[in-house]
Write a structure and sequence with these properties.
Shape of chain A: globular
CATH topology of chain B: Glutaconate Coenzyme A-transferase
Strand content of chain B: 25-35%
Order of helices and strands of chain A: HEHEEEHEEEHEEEEEHE
Distance between the termini of chain B: 49 Å
Number of strands of chain B: 13
Helix content of chain B: 10-25%
Order of helices and strands of chain B: HEHEHEHEHEEEEEEHEEE
Strand order of the largest sheet of chain A: 4-3-2-1-5-8-10-11-12-13
CATH superfamily of chain B: Glutaconate Coenzyme A-transferase
Largest interface: A-B, 53 and 55 residues
Radius of gyration of chain B: 18 Å
Number of helices of chain B: 6
Radius of gyration of chain A: 17 Å
Largest sheet of chain B: 7 strands, parallel
Strand order of the largest sheet of chain B: 4-3-2-1-8-11-13
Number of domains of chain B: 1
Oligomer: heterodimer
CATH architecture of chain B: 3-Layer(aba) Sandwich
Strand content of chain A: 15-25%
């Protein structure tokens, strides 16, 4: 069975380490905050200028001056700090964020990522995504392995305009966890009940399958 | 408005000198921390062919979105747009030009502009459509692109409190691009919720020192929420 969005978030959350500063993108990455393992404390960075994002507010706590990068109302946790956008991106571009999780349309074996623009469709903008992928060492891309039409999103070379070049090393899809190394995807884990064959079929880019590919457990 | 006293008492005076074709830098992220009343005054004045620099372009009927209604914006420099239908329509019609800029690059362009730095190298955007036509240089084995700073004829800024001298503090995440825009305007106009006497703000807590600010005005604000999200 392919992973659910929640299981994907759960799997990503296992990469969190105590003391990490983490930036979570919109969509599945946002859900990671719900699965921070017990005994681990992380600070969530929101690129509009908040380090230490807390839970959503109660009705009474809603404050128009307190939002996250997805423009949702949020709270600040104890120990949070708030700053301007240049400071926020100094953290991101200066490589101070320990883990960045974001979605994508395509990833390729060179670590290129395309996530913001589909030619012919209206382009809304890259927001902070180009800064995040250029600035972080440790990035996990979360996306479905293939499109709804069955087209693989793991390619030898991205077909869409890039968000960043050569910056992705880890990809979690609904079928597998893969690393990118030496011009290939390396299959590290597979979703419960998903066969190596299925992953091979749905991976268009060069794929290395180690002898033993453990199954994820939840 | 005399000497160090930056106070003005009408929005008309706040934007005196704003004319067609100027570049306006606007603070705000989404609808958070936007200079609502100064945007309203731009609309009232009917100036056209503006270049507007702002992270976003408001929504239909609120924020910078209202400047689209009478086609006052010729060019928008932003990181994320399209939260409004009118924007899409004018973009597709070719009535509006858009320069999409990565959010961190946009913030840094304003910071550099305000700090007298004409350009800077950044890894952001290298190898992407953003890099087209830009100088590339390698430092320590990594590729960077040259980005130009931004300055504007006017900066319109939303603060929380200011004193007579234009020292400003912002509230929570309504800070965002505001202090950056404030540094990069030839004329910087700040509207705030409360103007207090000099000495009432803690000097160590000032976000925007008054040297950057030319005019300050007290207003009242709707502070519309774009995505009200609550927990049970």
């Amino acid at each position: 069975m392919a992973l659910t969005r929640e299981q994907m978030a759960q799997r990503v959350a296992r990469e969190l380490k105590d003391g990490y500063y983490v930036n979570l993108g919109i969509g599945i990455p946002t859900l990671v905050a719900n699965y921070v393992p017990e005994g681990i404390d992380v600070m969530l960075q929101s690129e509009n200028g908040l380090l230490g994002m807390g839970a959503f507010p109660t009705d009474a706590e809603v404050d128009a001056d307190m939002i996250n990068a997805g423009k949702q109302t949020v709270t600040a946790r104890a120990g949070a700090s708030i700053f301007d956008s240049a400071e926020s991106f100094a953290m991101i571009r200066g490589g101070h964020v320990d883990l960045t999780v974001l979605g994508a349309f395509e990833v390729d074996v060179q670590g290129n990522i395309a996530s913001w623009m589909i030619p012919g469709k209206l382009v809304k903008g890259m927001g902070g995504a180009m800064d995040l992928v250029a600035g972080a060492d440790n990035i996990i891309v979360t996306m479905t392995h293939a499109s709804k039409d069955g087209e693989s999103k793991l390619l030898d070379s991205c077909t869409l305009p890039l968000t960043g070049a050569g910056c992705i090393r880890k990809v979690l899809t609904d079928l597998a966890y893969l690393e990118i190394e030496g011009g290939a995807f390396i299959l590290r884990e597979r979703a419960p009940g998903v066969s190596v064959e299925e992953i091979v079929t749905k991976t268009a880019g060069r794929l290395i399958v180690p002898e033993h590919v453990p199954e994820m457990s939840f | 408005m005399a000497g160090l006293d930056k106070r003005v008492y009408s929005y008309e005076d706040a934007l005196a000198g704003l004319t067609d074709g100027m570049t306006v830098l606007a603070g705000g992220f989404g609808l958070c921390g936007i200079p609502e009343n100064l945007i309203g005054e731009i609309r009232r004045r009917g100036v056209r062919d503006l270049t507007v620099v702002s992270n976003n372009c408001g929504v239909d009927g609120f924020g910078l979105g209202v400047l689209l209604e009478d086609r006052q914006i010729r060019k928008m420099i932003a990181s994320y747009v399209g939260e409004n239908a009118l924007f899409e329509q004018q973009l597709l019609n070719g009535e509006l030009e858009v320069e999409l800029t990565p959010q961190g690059t946009l913030a840094e362009k304003l910071r550099a502009g305000g700090a007298g730095i004409p350009a800077f190298f950044t890894a952001t955007g290298y190898g992407t459509p953003v890099a087209e036509g830009k100088e590339v240089r390698e430092f320590d084995g990594r590729q960077y692109i040259l980005e130009r700073a931004i300055t504007g004829d006017f900066a319109i800024v939303k603060g929380w409190k200011a004193d007579h001298f234009g020292n400003v503090i912002y509230r929570h995440t309504a800070q965002n691009f505001n202090p950056l825009a404030a540094t990069a305007g030839r004329i910087t106009v700040v509207e705030v919720e409360e103007i207090v006497a000099p000495g009432e703000l803690d000097p160590a807590q000032i976000h925007t020192p008054g040297i950057y600010v030319n005019r300050v005005i007290q207003g009242s604000f709707e502070k519309r929420i774009e995505k009200r999200t609550v927990r049970a």
